[in-house]
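During the second half of the funding period, the structural biology subgroup turned its attention to how the target accommodates small molecules. The most pressing case was FE2/S2 (inorganic) cluster, which had performed well in the primary screen but for which no bound structure existed. We therefore specified the complex as follows and requested a full 3D prediction, including the ligand pose.
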Amino acid sequence: MAKKIHKETDIVFHIRRYNPELDSKPLWKKYTVHVEPGMTVLDGLHQIRETQDASLSLRYSCRMGVCGSCGMLLNGRPSLACNTQILDITTKVLTVASLPNFDIIKDLVPDLTPLFEKHISTSPHIVRNDADEMLNPTGEFYQTPEELTRYLQFTYCIKCGLCMSACPTLATDPEYIGSQALPQAYRYNVDTRDDGFNLRKKIVGSTHGVFRCHYAGECSNVCPKGVDPARAIQLMKRELVLDYLKLKKHRAKSHICSKPEGVERIPEIPEAPPFTVEQK
Ligand code: SF4
Ligand code: FES
């Protein structure tokens, strides 16, 4: 397919402004920006701040899609402002608002505190039973390429919160642990160096854990780093069900497929779900 050629043009930025300390409700303001090919939304917002309205608040740092600071709602889609070319998404009007499902600190700056609190609650680090080895390591714990593949994509998360802002479950249950933290729990659960499954399952299997997910899949669609949070959550549901039925332990012990104690019926072990988004 031929590459689309963009031309410079004027674009109207329609920006949702809100200062919770002063305003009773958000207000939409319009700014016209002369856009040239190659300009990102972050460039356009800087131009507004420098030439039209220095009171506009936004958050950014790296300008290269790495720090996760500049997430915002662009024409209705959670996106990174530094990673989005204006002319790729509009040639006329661009609506810009703070990320849904988060409180607003000011204008385009969401309060990501719940993201970090939920992230920490799932113990997103290697947990080991052998405390001696942790304190006095005797060697390295190697990973095979196959072992690495099980969790590699989840390590690419930059904690931008786009997945959480796209999540319909979080929109109705603010306590839902959500699509950033739950995949990080999965990332460590499947790491062969980790012993933290039982610690994490109290959180991820709780009322606001993985079973609240309805598998809308929007988290995976909007993730700018190619992470597939929806898949990790479905895989963790599977892990928890298998753990509950103690099938893993029973099979490892007996190598036969008879019923474990206390289990009426052995269900078919579900296949792992397919990828939610195309893998690059
Ligand atoms: S999973 Fe993707 S969208 Fe969600 S916080 Fe991590 S990088 Fe952002
Ligand atoms: S400024 Fe760092 S991701 Fe956009």
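Two results from this model are relevant to the next phase. The domain at 9-110 is CATH 3.10.20.30 (Ubiquitin-like (UB roll)). The beta strands are 9-17, 27-35, 71-74, 77-80, 93-97, 104-106, 109-110.
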